[in-house]
UniProtKB/TrEMBL annotation:
Pfam families: RNA_pol_Rpb4. One of its GO terms (molecular function) is nucleotide binding. It comes from the Eukaryota. The keyword Membrane does not apply. Its main location: nucleus. The keyword Disulfide bond does not apply. Keywords: DNA-directed RNA polymerase, Nucleus, Transcription. This is DNA-directed RNA polymerase III subunit RPC9. It is found in: Nucleus. The lineage of its organism: Eukaryota, Fungi, Dikarya, Ascomycota, Saccharomycotina. It comes from Trichomonascus ciferrii.
């Protein structure tokens, strides 16, 4: 198989979530030409997965406006990150420094402690948070 055109754009979880929601709505409207049952299963599973991430958090959902505000705020602080690092931050919405260390390459050499704290605070402010899993009651 030959790749005709390479894709050069990555998508945030938010963009994927919005796209699959749109596809599912379109499929519901056109039940006659619905397509594969397997596709519908994949869409349902993917949507369910993303709903458990910062993207679909019902208490504090991400929006395109908030993602743009987050990126703008980081730029205004004079912090320079790679596109892939922004993507990871948006998709993960880290709320602690240890998570931040996994997402930003050479963070100790590139950022000061205060800048790391500022990024974490901006993530909390604009990107929501990953819902905590429900723990079973111990009796």
């Amino acid at each position: 198989m030959k790749v005709e055109a390479a894709r050069d754009k990555f998508m945030t979880n938010l963009e994927v979530y919005e796209y699959i929601s749109e596809v599912r709505e379109r499929n519901k409207a056109d039940m006659e030409h619905r397509g594969s049952e397997h596709l519908e299963t994949v869409l349902i599973e993917l949507q369910s997965y993303l709903r458990d991430r910062p993207t679909g958090n019902q208490e504090s959902p991400q929006t395109q406006k908030n993602v743009e505000a987050f990126i703008r705020s980081v730029h205004e602080l004079g912090i320079h990150l790679e596109k892939a690092e922004y993507l990871q931050l948006v998709n993960t919405a880290p709320n602690s420094r240890p998570v931040l260390y996994n997402l930003i390459e050479d963070i100790e050499q590139r950022l000061e402690e205060t800048q790391m704290e500022q990024i974490t605070n901006l993530c909390k402010q604009y990107l929501g948070f990953e819902p905590m899993p429900e723990m079973p009651d111990e009796e």
